[in-house]
Amino acid sequence: MLDIRFIRENPDTVKEGILAKNEKGNVDLILSKDEKRRSLIYKVEELKKKRNENSKLVSVYVKEKKDAKELIQSTKAISEKIRTIDTEIAELDQSIFEELIRIPNLPHITTPIGKDASENAEVKVWGELPQFDFEIMNHVELGERLNILDFPRGGKVTGSGFPVYKGMGATLERALINYMIDFHLKNHNYTEIFPPFVANRDSMFGTGQLPKLADDMYFCEKDDLFLIPTAEVPVTNLHRDEILISDVLPIKYVAYSACFRREAGSYGKDTRGFLRVHQFNKVEMVNFVHPDESEKVHEIMLTEATEILEALHIPYRVLLLCSGDLSFSAAKCYDIETWSPAENKWLEASSVSNFMDFQARRANIRFRSEKGAKPQFVHTLNGSGLATSRLMVSLLENYQTDEGTVVIPEALIPYMHGKSIIKV
Fold first, then answer.
1. Which of 78, 174, 184, 366 reaches 20 to 30 Å from 25, CA-CA?
2. Per the omega criterion (within 30 degrees of 0), is the bond before 250 cis?
3. Is 377 helix (H, G, I), strand (E, B) or coil?
4. pLDDT (tens digit per residue) in 54-81
5. Radius of gyration over alpha carbons of the chain, in Å?
């Protein structure tokens, strides 16, 4: 959420940011309501001043045995006016708040301005794309042949987009999750969190999913809870409504969770296998940092995610998202995409985002630099480190052999009970 003072002082900048992100928001309406609100507050203060003067005068009248009836009635009338205006101010506060929460985070100064994903900037490509001298299979064909993935039965149990991992496929999925968590714990000084997989409205609001993305969430109506779309939601909200001590910053959490997304509006898109699913697994990094450090930490988190792909020897590229492809809450974001030989294209496996103080304002997460100092909002960042579904596509397809088997990356062998190949 943006600071109303910033909007007051920079209305054109805010309007340009909204336009650059293809979002909606009525800055003029907010400023009009805000001006009326401030005018009413001034009026109330003047009335309170008058009421206080009257109250003192009543005391004088009583002491001097003068008739204070008319003055008392006048004071009561002033109090009634104050109550009426206070009600109007409260209604304006709520109205302004409802408009403010629809204003997106503004693009960071280093975010390129562009209309959509076609204008994202490629900033890095790593690894050589594999060359095969045999007819390759896609990840669905490999999963069926090796009896490690079962999409039809997942559809039978739940519905399309809910995969089932079997045998070595289940072991490989678990190996990826455990390897990535251990990688961040050992190499990047993270603290592991195992969060709930459901969240309340306050949590979903705090990270920016509500109200904008309500239709993309799975909702448990009876309990008023949402299945989480990412561990970012519960982990970021661990410190909601807290004032942290600056000495504890940065706070670095890593968490595994299942993720649930309805993918509203995905009709007609490629939904084969893992290319578009409603449930997937992800290891998430969440950082709470001092505002002066967030740009530097953003670059560090990008490296923390890509190091895993380099250790697994999976080709990837990094895109700097343009303004029109940014999420509602992000100021700057890198996407990491892994190579799919069968699809002959890059697939998103991670997003690493800097939200600056946008989420912290919504979730009221602050820090105090020293005792007695005024609390400031922290900056929050998160990044997939990594999501396994698209990563699984790239792993199976890049490591397939002409015998229809899949070689296990060396780094994962200890997590695969020593097995180095998946075969029939």
1. 366
2. yes
3. strand
4. 999 989 988 888 898 899 999 999 999 9
5. 28
Cβ proximity of 260 and 278 under 8 Å: yes
Q: Select from 102, 100, 114 the least CA-distant residue to 328.
A: 102
Assess contact for 336 and 350: CB atoms under 8 A: yes
The whole-angstrom separation of Cα 44 and Cα 38 is 10
Question: pLDDT value at position 270?
Answer: 67
> 142 Cβ partners below 8 Å, 6+ apart?
148, 149, 396, 397, 400, 404, 406
Hey, which residues does 345 pair with through a beta bridge?
340
How much is the mean pLDDT over the chain? 96
Place of tokens 């309990």: 223
Which parts of 238-378 fold into alpha helices (H)? 294-312, 358-363
CA–CA dist 224, 222 (Å, integer): 6
DSSP annotation of 158 reads T
> If we measure between CA atoms, which residue out of 303, 311, 316 comes closest to residue 381?
303
What residue type is 118 in one-letter code?
S
- Which residue reads 């504890």 in tokens? 248
d(CA 257, CA 231): 6
Q: Taking Cα atoms as reference points, which of 212, 222, 228 lies closest to residue 262?
A: 228
Task: Map out the domains of the chain with their CATH numbers.
Answer: 4-100 (1.10.287.40), 117-422 (3.30.930.10)
